[in-house]
Fold these 2 entries.
Entry 1:
Amino acid sequence: MGLRGPGAVAIRRKTAAKPKRKTRPPWQKPGLSRVERVIAFLQSLPVTSGPLAGTTFRVRPWQRKTLEAIYATDHLDRRPIRTAIVSMGRKNGKTTLAAGLTACHLCGPEAESRGECYTLANDRFQASRVFNELSAVITRSPELSGRISIRRHSKEMEVISGEGEGSLYAALSADVGAKDGLSPSFAVYDELGAAPNRALFDLIDTAMGGRDEPLLLAVSTQAADDLAPLSGLIDYGERVQSGAVEDPAFHLTLFTAPPEADPWALATWRMANPSLGDFRSLEDVERQALQAQRMPAKAAAFRNKILNQRVAAESRFLSLEEWRACGDPVRSDEELEGQQCFAGLDLGATRDLTALVSVFPSEDGRLDVKAWFFLPADGLEERESRDRVPYREWADRGLLTLMPGSTSDPAFVAQLLAELRDRYVIEGLAYDRWRIEPFKRALTDVGVEDFPLIAHGQGYRDFSPALDALERAVAEKQLRHGGHPILMWNAANAVATRDPTGAQKLDKSRSTGRIDGLVALTMALGLRSRAPQVEEVSELSVTWL
């Protein structure tokens, strides 16, 4: 001990400060229901960006209604919902809600010990946005910031104390591999509507079996077409809501404007934008509506992104609403037996889709449409990723014939035509002259020597009358296509171009996907509208390339 010198004063000993009583977080208040705990947690989180930055999150009535549906419990206080879809127009706070619920399952009242939480996105940039939002919320929250270790370089987090201790979080994107071995307790997919396929969604969904009460949530604006992964989930959710399907584990919240609503009316905007005038800027929607009215090219994008309608942003040749209206069931095979028909054939390139479509006139003035599609089996997964459609599922359903190998084989189509010739009265088969010679040889090989083949030009002069026939048939609901999904996909992709005289043709180079089935259908209708010039199939010395 040191000596004290002259003039030293007495040392005042500090009395030990009384420990502060730790206040209980609002979501741990006794007597709260499960959804009330979730809402209390969300309303404790800070708003980190936008005009409301610096305040705490306030759950709006529409959000409360959605949360009450998702976090409703049974008599054992268990949450039945395992998959939830929430869809609305852009800029309605979807990412903020996704981040808040992720935190709730990671380190809040829905957390479980050593849980795994993931935010899913279509690319690394989108994944970064969700991670950054969650990081900002946690670092600005006094209750959470000291409990979470954030690893920004890998976009991961770990709970080191308190609720959910030992739980992990990671931001995953569809464009990065190596996601096997996960056991998610919670996952939220941000903007599933823009996903190229269901691969990441299905991987997470099937990995949740090891958890007691997992939840997979998708928050997104609608996709542009019926074949997108989100579209199938929304359609399923609507069937659940209508009672056509019983699935207590699935929930859909959908804010959308019906197709017949006035797109320029404020009431219509509110249908798809529950936060309009709140944190969704009314002024911005008014600006975009005015531009869409003045520039027709923007109208479809306005309907999709703002009104949350399933409308492609690109200009389409056919209205999908009118096409769907022609989806009545086709007459049965027994009823079509021996009936007159006109066929069209669009041969795909070596590795692409081939389409054969026939139209059958009926006594009621309508036209039944039957379609057959062919594709090489090798590399199917790559084609699914490239074309963003479920080829494997279509093949399993008998809608698509997979040909062995990596290239198209015309013998499959030739054999089918030989069978159809014995079943129907085929007045003619319209074809594109490109690559037709190997197909004629294949017909000869299967014993078909007298098939009525009619060349159909692909230019404006020959194709324009056929397209006119197609447009009339669709507009007047003359077609019955039975909602064939591949044909619908082709119709949704089709774009037509016009020459200076106003004649039109389908343009594969400008279309947004494959249109082979619609090309074949158009040629079949064109053939029906004109007197065919039949040519005989002769022996040829050409081989399939």
Entry 2:
Amino acid sequence: MKKIFIPSCFILRGYLLTAACCIAFYSQAQLGIQAGTTLTIESGTKMVLQGDLLSSVSVQGSGSIVMKGSGLQNINANGNTIPNLEIDNASNVLLTGSLKIGNNLLFTNGKLRIASADLIIISSSTITGNNSSRFVWTDGTGQLKKELTANISNYELPVGENSNYRPAYLTTSGSSFSTANFGVRLIAGADANKPPMMANYINAYWPVTNTGISGGIITVAGQYLDPSDITGTESNLAGYYFNGSNWSSSGETHNTATSQISAPVTNSSGELFAMNKFITVGIRAFLQGAYNNSTGTMSDALRSGTNVIPLSDPYRQTPYNSSFTHVSNPTTEAVAATVFNNQASVNDDIVDWVFIELRNTASPGNSVLQTRSALIQRDGDIVDIDGVSPVTFNNVSNGTYTIAIRHRNHLGLSTNPTTPQSLNETKSTAFTTNVVDLRTLTGSSIYGTSSGYTTSTHPTLGTVNLLWGGNANFNTNVRYTGLSNDKDYILVTTLANNPATVLTNVYSAADINMNKIVRYTGLTNDKDFLYITVLQSNTVTIRTQQLPN
């Protein structure tokens, strides 16, 4: 092949027609192609650039431009077309403006970084030579886009980042196309939209866009790196698509042999990710010890001022772990300190930790499938460790379940297994779907008899249910006298048998009115709350927990 060298900083202002006789034109510095100019590279001819390329027009002909520098090279095509582009630079090539490929993008050496620019492959164009070290590096908001005029099967979109190749594969069937393209990029790291406390997931995801493709089925697959991308257990992974509001695994596939997951694309933009099957549930309840019927909310005294609520799950720690045992939940729940800050809405301020049991529905519902520790807000919403999201249960499929709520100084309350709750993976951040509202459930929807919980009034909800308070020794009953009574636990165990002692700014089960103070006498003392409010001034009354057992 004959070589012709073009001077440094070559700027084309008129017409250049290359010969069609296997000539290679070499530019050792920047090549600029100005508006109003025609550059035609004939078949069999290569224009080899060792500097940058700046073009204000589309290149003509069927020859190739070869990026073959010794350092990072830049291409700014301003959205114009290069018929054939070859990447042959170990130091990589960077797009600083969008580019269309009219015939073929060939990888010989190095990567094409697209940053915030789009790389568009027209419908008849191909990408060749890509492999685990030669691919489109999506290191910004730019996408690799494939234009479409007909259905396509398992088309490889060679995206990755740094030295990590994680291609996507596109399949459409039964679709129609109108100025259509499908875009994808790869982001390293776990998807920020995944539910909190997800146990198994990959540290990569693929944001996608769908323009002008309608009808039929659009499926995108992603190939992750095994084992470096995997958190948890690979066999638990499933493909998920996030549509901007909800996750769905409907129609997903997962193949551990090929390290690929897939899911249908159901709207114009979303994200492909891999994580374990899960369900979410927006649960609501009221705790008697903190409830105020005039406001219809609970007190958040434990976190206001000086927060005393622990940042990690108290039910795994002494003394509560003697009565609360986690099932299928080995990872300790922990929250950021900011979760206990004042929230935009005072009703969203955190009251305390609660303990949730996901149970079976077969009568009597006594099989605990999984437990979670979560946070309860002033309005009764029970949220995950981010203080916002509904509670996630891992490795559980859509179905019907029984939900029980327990608390460190209240008696538990459960839905009735004979009235199963239908739960799935639909996100319920606004607590408008998948809601199990123990505050307002009535009759047979609640397990046990009406003596298993108490009621109060609410400004807008009318009569509401409350978990019985007063369970200072966190067992299965509340009592004033006899063995293991709660009055003695307050006085003897907590206050060292000194009724004059007052403990302030404490996180204690003996603080049954949840005001951050344990006291036996005086105003707002815990003994009187137990006697008057919980036991209705009757020393022989016993409140007994009613859970499916």
